[in-house]
Amino acid sequence: MKGKLANLFLAIIGVFLMVNLVRSISSISEKGKIIEDTQKRLIEAKEKNSQLKRKLAKIESPAFIEKEAREKLNLGREGEYMVILPPVTPSPPPQEPERLTNLEAWMKVFW
After folding, report:
1. Using an 8 Å Cβ cutoff, are 27 and 34 in contact?
2. What is the pLDDT of residue 94?
3. What's the rounded Cα separation, in Å, for the pair 56 and 58?
4. Nearest to 61 by CA among 69, 49, 51
5. Is the pLDDT of residue 110 over 90?
6. What would the pLDDT profile of 6-19 be if each residue is shown by its tens digit?
7. Within 10 A of 2 (CB to CB), how many other CB atoms are there?
8. Cα separation of 62 and 83, whole Å?
């Protein structure tokens, strides 16, 4: 009887340990996935950061500043003249003259 009770007790402890082991393994697996996702987001953030740094360097360059001042603010260097032209409006298409017979044309001239 004592042997059966000891075996039952050991079986319960074994099942309990196995359940805890499976939970630990699944928890570690989930945490590993979280770490991988975080590392991917970190890599993407670093790439975006480097792109923004390149863009900032380009924007802070004197050539870009001068270009923007000329195009958007209509500014120029000292001694330069700015000519601002009015917008070009399209001319209407030419109209065809009326087609009249000779008699109608002479009548239009005299009356």
Report:
1. no
2. 81
3. 5
4. 69
5. no
6. 889 899 999 999 99
7. 6
8. 23
Spell out the domain ranges in the chain.
33-80
CA 35 from chain centre, in angstroms, equals 26
Residues 90 and 84 sit within 8 Å (Cβ to Cβ):
no
Helix residue ranges, H only, the chain: 2-59, 62-72, 102-110
Residue 2: HSE in the Cβ half-sphere, 13 Å Cα cutoff:
0
> Do residues 82 and 76 make contact, with C-beta atoms less than 8 angstroms apart?
yes
Q: Using alpha carbons, list the distances in angstroms from residue 72 to 66, 68, 75.
A: 10, 6, 8
Mean pLDDT of 10-39: 94
Handedness of CA 36, 41, 42, 48 (dihedral sign): positive
Q: How far apart are CA 101 and CA 35, in angstroms?
A: 91
- For 94, the token pair is 């030419």
Q: pTM value?
A: 0.49
